[in-house]
Every structure is written in structure tokens, then in C-alpha cells.
Write a structure and sequence with these properties.
Number of helices: 8
Number of strands: 7
Largest sheet: 7 strands, antiparallel
Structural class: alpha+beta
Length: 201
């Protein structure tokens, strides 16, 4: 049966109880702030006015996202491929969802809220010591903040070394793009790709 409305959904799943229901805060408290300051990686989720979805990985040194106060975060828009999918969506809808990860920690931090793109000098100066300082920053106004349980990471065993694959058995990015685009050029090797990427970090 196709689930098509809220009543069908709740009949199947029920409602959250206890901590699952009560844990959502409208601000950042000390543990959320510590999580952000310890995290080197997040996934940024956005949507355009016409419903085009995007989920984009963002990373840096621990604490690359700056906490301004208990309602405000600043994320550097690091140098990329200029597709600007996420920030185009932000300009259209001013909405954002963030999932913060810390290597070795199975719990994650989810933050939802409003956002805008800024070139304000006081924001850009937060990242002035980066190898490639950003041209702009995403400023997030926190509306919801909550810790997410460890089950997904426990199921996937994501941080366990025994789960890492042998990269030699997996196609390189160059080979995958060659096959997808149908080009005749020799695919870029993993070593050449890493060397090229390192110049722009």
C-alpha cells in the first residue's frame, strides 16, 4: 500500500515519545556548540522554490563552522566546482538543514533553520587564515537543534577500519565520469586527481 497521508503514516509508525519528542531545541546549548566546534564535516541539505533537492558535503579542520552565538552559525563556502547548487537554493528559499558528523562518534547533530549568503567582511575574516579563504559564507539562523541517535552508524559500522574497502577494487572518479559522460579521453588516475585537489584545499 502506498502511504499518502499523515494519518496512514502515524497508523504505521505511531508518534515519538519521551526524549525523541522532547529533545528538539530552538537554540544551541553547550553540547551542540561543542559538537559543532569538534566536527570537521557536515552534510548541507537545501531545496529550491520548485522543489529541486540538494545534499552537499562540506568539510574542513575541526571547528571549520564558526559559532557566533546560540542562534547563529557561519559556514565558509569553500572553493569548489562553481555549480553552486546549495547556495542557489539558499538564495531562493532561505532554508537549510545540516547534519554534523565527528569521526569515531556514532551520534550526529541535526540543525535546521533559515540561511543567507553573505560577503560581510566580519564573517569572511573568520576564515582569513585558511589556505583558500572563501568568497562568501552561509549564515545560519538556528530554528531547531537536536542530537540524532547512533543506530544508523552502528548498523553501517561506518567508522570501523574493518569495513573500509580496498580502493583498488573500486572504479576511480575519472573512470566513472568517463563512462557516465561517454568521453574517449584517458580517465584521470586517482593519484592525479588527489594531486589536483590538494592544490585547491
Amino acid at each position: 500500500m502506498k502511504i499518502e497521508n499523515e494519518s496512514q503514516l502515524r497508523e504505521l509508525y505511531g508518534y515519538p515519545k519521551g526524549r525523541a519528542k522532547d529533545k528538539v531545541l530552538n537554540h544551541l546549548e553547550k553540547h551542540a556548540i561543542n559538537f559543532v566546534k569538534t566536527s570537521p564535516f557536515l552534510v548541507m541539505s537545501t531545496s529550491s522554490i520548485d522543489g529541486k533537492q540538494d545534499a552537499s558535503p562540506r568539510g574542513g579542520n575541526q571547528g571549520f563552522v564558526k559559532v557566533i552565538d546560540d542562534k547563529t552559525l557561519v559556514i565558509p563556502d569553500a572553493k569548489g566546482n562553481n555549480r553552486v547548487d546549495s547556495i542557489s537554493n539558499i538564495i531562493e528559499t532561505h532554508r537549510i538543514g545540516l547534519l554534523f558528523l565527528i569521526p569515531g562518534v556514532d551520534e550526529t547533530l541535526r540543525i535546521n533553520g533559515r540561511a543567507f549568503l553573505s560577503t560581510k567582511p566580519s564573517y569572511l575574516n573568520l576564515f582569513i587564515e585558511e589556505n583558500n579563504p572563501p568568497k562568501a559564507c552561509v549564515v545560519v539562523s538556528v530554528e531547531a537543534s537536536f542530537l540524532h541517535c547512533a543506530k544508523a552508524f552502528m548498523r553501517s559500522r561506518l567508522w570501523e577500519a574493518s569495513e573500509q574497502i580496498n580502493r583498488d577494487t573500486f572504479p576511480t572518479m575519472g573512470q566513472m565520469l568517463k563512462d557516465q559522460l561517454g568521453t574517449k579521453e584517458t580517465p584521470e588516475t586517482r593519484e592525479a586527481m588527489i594531486e589536483r585537489y590538494n592544490k585547491d584545499l
